[in-house]
What we know:
It comes from Mucilaginibacter hurinus. Belongs to the transglycosylase Slt family. This is Lytic transglycosylase domain-containing protein. InterPro entries: Lysozyme-like_dom_sf (IPR023346), Transglycosylase_SLT_dom_1 (IPR008258). This protein has helices at residues 3-27, 65-77, 80-83, 87-105, 115-119, 139-144, 159-177, 180-189, 191-201, 213-230, 244-253; strands at 54-55, 58-59, 149-150, 153-154. The protein is mostly helical. The chain has one domain (64-253): Lysozyme (Orthogonal Bundle). It is globular. It starts with a helix and ends with a helix. The relative contact order is 0.14.
Amino acid sequence: MTKKHLITCSVMLVVIFISVFGLSNATEVKKVKITRTSPLIFKDVPEAEVPFFSFADEAIPVNDARVDRKMSYSLWIHSYKKVHSNILHIKAEKLFPVIEPILEYYGIPEDFKYVPLVESGLREGTSPKGARGLWQFMPGTARHYGLKVGRGKDERLNVRKSTVAACKYLRALYDEFDSWTLAAAAYNNGSVKIGRAMNKQNEDNYFRMRLNRETGMYVYKLVAMKEIIENPGKYGYNEYFSSTLERQQLAAFN
């Protein structure tokens, strides 16, 4: 065989080798299991310039522009300028002494006491989907966690019993996701949907995930509610209820 033929054969072998092994490696699909990631880390910002917000002892990373926008919007939408009512403070004053010891007994972070204010807001009726009560339980979920619903009885409207059921549900969600922010998101949108989103995005940090609008804002709403209840004056709320409507609401709530 001539030298020219040897070179030609060598080139052909190299091309075949690259096309077979290189292509197979390029098209191989790796199945990556979601692992617990580190907290969000962003560019350094002087600590004094970053407002501190937290939920269940997890800091809200507001030095990320996307997170900061969502947090600022949620605080604005819950400010007195937008709400024009102190009824949420009235409800908090009445409900928290009942809810707080139950949360503590079941080992649920106290910040979850704001869930009823976000879920039911100014209304305690039945949602279009059938959720009812302060914790907005669907009938099936309520029954699963020990509440009686039906035959003229609806324990979703019982503050103590529904809070106990909510604690059991939240504990189960935390055991599943090992994160209180994800447990809150799953409380809003269901554990199946949150699990699917985590697998699809290969992500386990709520603040990094892309979720539907309601669930994607849910934790921000809880933090905003916490802020306006704990620091009312900062967000335009007054301790006096001047309007006739608010006096009527207060009387009705008592």
